[in-house]
């Protein structure tokens, strides 16, 4: 159980954290642009939706069953 929670945490928050802060020192010296934006800004703004995707993957893979169990319990009480 604890290993599933750790893996969920790593996918949901660890991957975006490392992808943004871990890569910034390497991308800071790049002078290329993507769609007219400097690469460092493009990289940071790219991770806004990708963080949501990581959180969704984490929820779908590890926490979805808890929500479904709660819905079934509520339906049984009604």
Automatic annotation (TrEMBL):
Q: Does the keyword Transmembrane helix apply?
A: yes
Kindly state which keywords UniProt assigns to this record, in alphabetical order. Answer: Membrane, Transmembrane, Transmembrane helix
What InterPro entries does the entry give?
A: DUF3311
**Pfam families named among the record's database cross-references:** DUF3311
Membrane-spanning residues where? Answer: 7-28, 40-62
Q: What is this protein called?
A: DUF3311 domain-containing protein
Q: Which organism is it from?
A: Alicyclobacillus cycloheptanicus
């Amino acid at each position: 159980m604890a290993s599933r929670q750790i893996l969920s945490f790593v996918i949901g928050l660890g991957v975006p954290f490392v992808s943004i802060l871990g890569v910034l020192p390497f991308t800071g010296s790049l002078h290329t642009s993507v769609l007219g934006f400097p690469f460092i800004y493009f990289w940071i703004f790219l991770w806004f939706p990708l963080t949501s995707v990581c959180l969704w993957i984490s929820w779908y893979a590890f926490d979805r069953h808890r929500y479904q169990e709660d819905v079934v319990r509520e339906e049984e009480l009604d």
